[in-house]
Amino acid sequence: MEEFEDRLERATERTLSLCDELGARATWFCLGDQSRRHPHLLRRIAGAGHEIALHGLTHRRALEMEEGDFVEALHRGKSLLEDFTGTEVLGFRAPEWSLRGRAEGYWRLLPPLGFRFDSSRAPLRVLGDPSWTRGAHLLQEGLWELPPPVAGAGPLTVPLWGWAMRLLPASWLRQRLLALAEAGAGNPLVLHPWELDPAQPALPEGTPMGHRFAHGAGLRGLEGRLRELWSAARDGAAVHVVVRGPAAAGARSTLAGAV
Question: 0.90 cut: is pTM over it?
Answer without folding.
Answer: no
